[in-house]
Each structure stands twice: as C-alpha cells, then as structure tokens.
Amino acid sequence: MTETTDPAEQARAALRARMSGHIDAALACLDEIGDPVERELAARILADDLLPDARTRVKGVRAAAVQELRQGRGLKLREVAELIDLSVARVDQIAKGKG
C-alpha cells in the first residue's frame, strides 16, 4: 500500500480506518456467539434491522452536515461541493435527505 503525503487523503484514510474498526467490532461480536442458531439470528438482526437503520441515520448526519455548511457558514451549494469534493447536484441531493 502506498503512503500519501496529502493531508486530506491522510485524514480520509484515518476516518475510514476508525469507522472500519467499529464495523469490525460489531462483526467480532457475531464471531463470539458460540451457538450457531443464536449467531444466525444476531447476524440477521444486524443485517435486516440495525444496518438499514444505520443507513437512514447516516443520511440524516450527511444532510445535517451539508445544512450546517450552507446555513451555519453561509456557503453556496457550489462552495460546499468543492469543500467536500462532490458535485453540486450530489450536494443538493444530500441536503434534501436523498443522500
């Protein structure tokens, strides 16, 4: 793996590693369940209940962050798009909760 000296890429890699660690911890909980019936049920709960709920919550977090940039900092869609490295159309979708 190549190391980057770009601070933005380093920050993104650190965030990815941090979040990946939390996901790994949830999956490790499944591995700790000895009974296969209970383990399957726990995996189903994770996949069918918790992950979809997390996805919905993540959309809300993204929308709130974009709104904070727009309203709190007074940035235009174009400025937010440049700041977070997305297209203007995508930022508009996220702001509307379609993210």
Task: Give the topology, please.
Blueprint: H1 7-31, H2 36-72, H3 77-84, H4 88-95
Instruction: Give unreliable regions as ranges.
Output: none
Strand content: under 5%
How much is the average pLDDT? 92
Reading the helices and strands in chain order gives HHHH
Q: What is the helix fraction of residues, given as a range?
A: over 70%
How would you describe the oligomerization state of the chains in this entry?
single chain
Describe this structure in words.
With 99 residues, the protein is an all-alpha fold. The protein is built from four helices and no strands. It is elongated.
Which keywords apply here?
99 residues; mainly alpha; 0% strand
Compose a concise summary of this entry.
This protein is mainly α. Helices cover 79% and strands 0% of the residues.
